[in-house]
């Protein structure tokens, strides 16, 4: 069950930039397999192709996803539902399983100014370095950022 505290103060606004974190059910490290991470990346791109978002940065970690985007249409909840539904369905098809992929809910932060946009994007892209999955910023294969990556 989703904690009602996660939804307190949540407000969707077109053109607002959001930083989202969503976690696999049980923190299962499904995305450590590159082909599984590719399914998640395809789902991120699908949501953007559907004109719901304009991605600014994302990283697919072994058991969670950080994604910063500008909401282009619909609501934040509908955007996340589209992403989680598509990624879950496609990854379950690939793995031949029917278990839920994602924990219910997600964490979101409305990013408030241009200066913090780049800082937040670099923070997202640096996540694999902090986790010991990459030695250098920009070298993790399952991350993308709209801006040049200097720490």
Description:
By secondary structure, the chain is an alpha+beta fold. 34% of the residues lie in helices and 21% in strands. It is built from four helices and five strands, in the order E-H-E-E-H-E-H-H-E. It has helices at residues 34-49, 76-95, 114-125, 127-130; strands at 17-23, 53-60, 64-71, 107-111, 143-145. It has a five-stranded antiparallel β-sheet with strand order 4-1-3-2-5, sandwiched between helices. A hairpin with a 3-residue loop joins strand 2 (53-60) and strand 3. Helix 1 runs antiparallel to helix 2. The longest helix is centred in the middle third of the chain and has 20 residues, at 76-95. It is globular and about 45 Å long. The chain starts with 16 loop residues before the first strand and ends in a 6-residue tail after the last strand.
What secondary-structure arrangement, pairings included, does this model have?
Layout: E1 17-23, H1 34-49, E2 53-60, E3 64-71, H2 76-95, E4 107-111, H3 114-125, H4 127-130, E5 143-145
Antiparallel strand pairs: 1-3, 1-4, 2-3, 2-5
Helix pairs in contact: 1-2
Proportion in β-strands: 15-25%
- Cα shape: globular
Q: Which percent range fits the helix content?
A: 25-40%
Low-confidence stretches: 1-6
- Radius of gyration from the CA trace? 15 Å
Largest sheet: 5 strands, antiparallel
Order of helices and strands: EHEEHEHHE
In the sheet with the most strands, the strands line up as 4-1-3-2-5
Strand runs, count: 5
> What's the average pLDDT?
91
- Class inferred from helices and paired strands: alpha+beta
Terminus-to-terminus distance:
38 Å
Helices, by number, come to 4
């Amino acid at each position: 069950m989703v904690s009602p505290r996660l939804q307190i103060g949540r407000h969707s606004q077109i053109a607002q930039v959001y930083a989202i974190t969503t976690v696999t059910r049980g923190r299962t490290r499904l995305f450590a397999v590159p082909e599984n991470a590719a399914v998640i990346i395809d789902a991120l791109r699908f949501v953007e192709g559907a004109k719901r978002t304009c991605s600014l940065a994302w990283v697919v970690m072994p058991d969670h996803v950080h994604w910063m985007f500008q909401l282009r249409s619909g609501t934040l909840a509908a955007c996340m539902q589209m992403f989680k539904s598509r990624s879950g369905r496609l990854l379950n098809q690939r793995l031949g399983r029917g278990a839920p992929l994602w924990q219910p809910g997600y964490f979101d932060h409305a990013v408030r100014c241009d200066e913090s946009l780049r800082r937040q994007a670099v923070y997202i892209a640096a996540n694999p370095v902090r986790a010991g999955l990459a030695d250098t910023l920009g070298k993790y294969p399952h991350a993308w950022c709209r801006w040049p990556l200097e720490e």
